[in-house]
Amino acid sequence: MEKLKTFEELVKNDKTYLSNLLFGNGFSINFGSRFMYSNLFEEAKELLIEEDINLFGELNTTNFEYALRVLDTSINTNKIFNIDFVGVAESYERIKSALIETVRKVHPEPQELTMDQDNDLKTTFRLFQEKVFTTNYDLLAYWALNKVNKVRAVGDNFGYDKDSEMIIFGAGSGVSSDKNPVRLYYLHGSLHLYMDKGEIIKITTKRNPIGRIDLPLLDTITETYESGYFPLYISEGTWKQKLNKILNNKYLSFCYSALMKTSKALTIYGQSLDKESDKHIIDAIKKSDIQKVAYGIYDVSNKERIIHEVIGNFQGTSIQVDFFDARSFFESLKNIEMEELFE
Predict the structure, then answer these.
(1) pLDDT value of residue 212
(2) Domain range spanning residue 255?
(3) CB-side exposure of 169: number of CA atoms within 13 Å?
(4) For 155-206, what is each residue's pLDDT tens digit?
(5) Do the domain assignments include residue 222?
(6) 170 and 46 in one domain?
(7) 100 and 171 together in one domain
(8) What InterPro entries does the annotation carry (predicted)?
């Protein structure tokens, strides 16, 4: 099979690939290996009991979603046969909670990013023109949004609410489409979002439920959790469970609907399209008006298998799927930006 193209080469042939971006954990790993599942699992061990840890060992995995899928299957099977499943259900909740807690724990501070990493963040949000979707819980996209809002309009559909004096989903006038903003959507929630009395609220250093304005954002988030406000996030093991939680939350369903309303092209980087855990993402893309998908492959040693699986996901649709070498994605973005400066 021929060598994978770079993302830069795809864009030279078709600039619509800069319309929309969907990224997952592979994006975050570029900014810190601590986000790798193997490292998250090692950090999470202190939050788990022996049986939880043994489960990962027996499954020969460090993938939290896979472990949660297995536990969910066990719970449902035990229900059918009237077998006690309390211990299994407790393990499910411990592992789910450990994941979000560990992401917060290993999260780098903004000053820990290198200059190159900082530029990668800004370049990503400067180049993509319409929508950026993420399934990550971390703050990298939030930081990027803050970094580029001086040079282009950005929006996340949160605004200032006069009554509560908080930043709330759906409040304020929002960013006018006349300004051609890039819009950010957290498909599975994020560390800095929480629910209170039916509202989805964004934690910022200046506006938060603990009333502190002197702390870095990560510390503010930690103290917010410790005060009893828990983050809005989805880490369920199966795509059906994820979709159920999405459709029962007004912010997450808004983001999911935005994906289904997307058109032109979609670039996918660092996001698996596993049918067991990501079918809801695949289905949303298939229901959209997206005409082309550019899918990044990092594990090039398995590119034939990955290409076969991804093409199979969109079989029966008119969506054209192209592939690129994800290992050089950020280098491609730098080159594209440089070329645009001299056009």
Answers:
(1) 85
(2) 7-31+113-193+236-341
(3) 22
(4) 899 999 999 999 999 997 777 777 878 899 999 999 999 999 889 999 999 9
(5) no
(6) no
(7) no
(8) DUF4917
Judging by DSSP bridges, how do beta strands 189-196 and 199-202 pair with one another? Answer: antiparallel
Q: How far apart are CA 89 and CA 87, in angstroms?
A: 5
- Kindly state whether residue 213 falls inside one of the protein's structural domains: no
Per-residue pLDDT reduced to its tens digit, 208-247: 998 888 888 989 998 888 888 888 999 888 999 999 999 9
The predicted structure's pLDDT at residue 343: 67
| The pLDDT of residue 111 is above 80 | yes
**pLDDT tens figures, 70-99:** 999 999 999 999 999 999 999 999 998 898
The pLDDT of 23-48, averaged and rounded, is 91
HEC sequence for the chain: CCCCECHHHHHHHCHHHHCEEEECHHHHHCCCHHHCHHHHHHHHHHHCCHHHHHHHHHHCCCCHHHHHHHHHHHHHHHHHCCCCCHHHHHHHHHHHHHHHHHHHHHCCCHHHCCHHHHHHHHHHHHHCCCEEEECCCCCHHHHHHHHHCCCCCEECCEEEECCCCEEEECCCCCCCHHHCCEEEEECCEEEEEEEECCEEEECCCCCCCCCCCCCCHHHHHHHHHHCCCCEEECCCCCHHHHHHHHHCCHHHHHHHHHHHCCEEEEEEECCCCCCCCCHHHHHHHHHCEEEEEEEEECCHHHHHHHHHHHHHHCCCCCCEEEEEEHHHHHHHHHHHHHHHHCC
Residue 1 has pLDDT above 90, yes or no: no
One-letter amino acid for residue 229 of the chain: Y
